[in-house]
Write a structure and sequence with these properties.
- This protein is α/β, with parallel strands linked by helices.
- The protein has 16 helices and 24 strands.
- The protein has a 7-stranded mixed beta sheet with strand order 14-17-18-13-12-20-21, sandwiched between helices.
- A hairpin with a 5-residue loop joins strand 5 and strand 6.
- Helix 3 runs antiparallel to helix 6, helix 4 crosses helix 5 and helix 10 crosses helix 11.
- The protein is globular and about 70 Å long.
- Bound molecules: nicotinamide-adenine-dinucleotide (NAD).
- The site of nicotinamide-adenine-dinucleotide has 28 residues, from helix 8 and helix 9.
Length: about 475
């Protein structure tokens, strides 16, 4: 480990952040955070108990009414100062994410920009919360519709985008006037812990944001979710966990936002600009080591160009460099052993079904959890990787002949987060927006994430939207009042 890395890690708080103070877990337990590129421990952080989780909710509940009454301009300015502080520390945050999650440093720098934009966007939205005012149809009274913060919110984030998944929830919640308890993923909690120091520096009052790190996600979360003081649950993670949390949330009638798994189709039509489609495919598949909910999961390529697409993409993929994210590589490690085992199984299943591995296809010997960037063609219709989230640097190709067949393939999944379409025919592009059943579409682009846009999915990919004008409404309650004319 370099001296810079050691110095950065020494500056990361390792406690629970509750009521504006750092504290140990109530039983003094810690959990180990490791570098997936080496398997070595980076830091040990507090491992919260269920009692610690409830203490965090106590703090959020105690701070709720003061924060809701804080002027929107003041709330917005705290977010804006946090944005500025993040820019000053951009290199530190990029390095920390690369260390704990494994992503290439250049991509981690990109996540600082993306994650920061939620702070800036919602600092601006905080002062634009408005309702409506009108007369009733009978002409006998006035209808006043106003917005109120929904109340204490529990925010659970995944490991794959340690900064952006946190700011995408924290910023709109704070802008709306909600206090929060944040539970980052146990594999990558360090970025959230360091981020909290920026909120403190920006002047955030005690108790508005509380952070609990724990290796017992279910045991610590369940009492928070069933507590009547909690009013909102926002989760980003896998569909099975989201389903469990929705069941738990139903007991307490919570508002919920669920950003869940994906199985994105990447459809290349015969009239596509192929060079552009290849560039888009590299981004949509290999960004974040393929570990993104928006990662292209199924490459559905018109039969007339499939061979050329496969040859050209294989050339690009075979040239990708693999190594520790800090070493200037294109592809870092997978998050853990389970991820490597899963990819190994998915490739074996595809090959058993008759597919051909054009490059890669194997795990790379450790230390660290690496998998060779892979291209597979000729997937059978029942290949597991067409149904399941791959979550790694494996690109599988199937072909189609008619537009109807391409659309049917794109929609043959329980998921509906994002779809990518490459075509130069404007009318066809518009048809695809209507026909492909997803919450988001990339038209001739391999990346769609943007703080100013409503991010989210349909079907088993979730409910609710984050970012854009919609993002803040997830944390606002609508209140209607009738005022009779006389
Ligand atoms: P995960 O579902 O295993 O975990 C997500 C979070 O939930 C973690 O903080 C984990 O500790 C917590 N958790 C797990 N079980 C829990 C329980 N019973 N109660 C409370 N909390 C619990 O997902 P992951 O492996 O961290 O992330 C990868 C998944 O996230 C993929 O499916 C990916 O598609 C999805 N994801 C979706 C989006 C989106 O915006 N739609 C964004 C990023 C990732």
């Amino acid at each position: 480990m370099s001296l810079d890395e050691r110095a950065l890690l020494a500056s990361v708080p390792t406690g629970l952040f509750i009521g504006g103070e750092w504290r140990l877990a109530s039983d003094n337990a810690t959990l180990s955070v490791v570098d997936p590129a080496t398997g070595n421990e980076l830091l040990a952080v507090a491992d919260a108990t269920p009692a610690d989780g409830l203490a965090a909710l106590d703090a959020a509940a105690a701070a709720a009414s003061d924060w809701a009454a804080t002027a929107p301009r003041v709330r917005g300015e705290i977010l804006r100062r946090t944005f500025d502080l993040l820019q000053e520390r951009a290199d530190d945050f990029a390095l920390l994410m690369s260390l704990e999650m494994g992503k290439p440093l250049a991509e981690a720098r990109g996540e600082v920009t993306y994650g920061g934009e939620f702070l800036r966007w919602f600092s601006e939205e905080a002062v634009r919360i408005s309702g409506s005012f009108g007369s009733n149809p009978e002409g006998t009274g006035t209808i006043v519709v106003s917005k109120r913060p929904v109340g204490p919110s529990f925010l659970i984030t995944p490991w794959n985008f340690p900064l952006a998944m946190a700011t995408r929830k924290i910023a709109p919640a704070l802008a709306a006037g909600c206090t929060v308890v944040v539970k980052p993923a146990e594999l990558t909690p360090l970025t959230t812990l360091l981020f909290v120091t920026l909120l403190q520096q920006a002047g955030l009052p005690a108790g508005v944001v509380n952070v609990i790190t724990t290796s017992s996600a279910r045991e610590v979360s369940a009492p928070i979710i069933s507590d009547p003081r909690l009013r909102k649950l926002s989760f980003t993670g896998s569909t099975p966990v989201g389903r469990t949390l929705l069941t738990q949330a139903s007991e307490n009638i919570l508002r919920t936002s669920m950003e869940l798994g994906g199985n994105a189709p990447f459809v290349v039509f015969e009239d596509a600009d192929l060079a552009r489609a290849i560039d888009g495919a590299m981004l949509a598949k290999f960004r974040n080591i393929g570990q993104a909910c928006t990662a292209a999961n199924r490459f559905i390529v018109h039969e007339s160009i499939a061979n050329e697409f496969a040859t050209r993409i294989t050339e690009r993929v075979a040239a990708l460099t693999v190594g520790r994210g800090t070493d200037g590589v294109d592809i870092g490690p997978l998050i853990d052993d389970r991820a490597v085992a899963n990819l190994t199984e998915l490739v074996a299943d595809a090959v058993a079904g008759g597919a051909t591995v054009l490059t890669g296809g194997v795990a790379i010997d450790g230390p660290g959890t690496f998998f060779a960037p892979t291209v597979i063609s000729g997937l059978a219709a029942d290949a597991r990787m067409l149904r399941e989230e791959i979550f790694g640097p494996v690109l599988g190709i199937v072909t189609f002949s008619t537009e109807e067949e391409g659309v049917a393939l794109a929609n043959s999944t329980e998921y509906g987060l994002v779809g990518y379409v490459f075509t130069q025919d404007l009318a066809r592009a518009h048809r695809m927006i209507d026909l492909i059943d997803t919450g988001m579409m990339g038209i001739n682009t391999g990346i769609v994430s943007n703080a100013a846009a409503p991010f989210g999915g349909v079907k088993q990919s979730g409910v609710g939207r984050e970012g854009g004008a919609e993002g803040i409404s997830e944390y606002l309650e609508t209140k209607y009042s009738l005022i009779p004319a006389s």
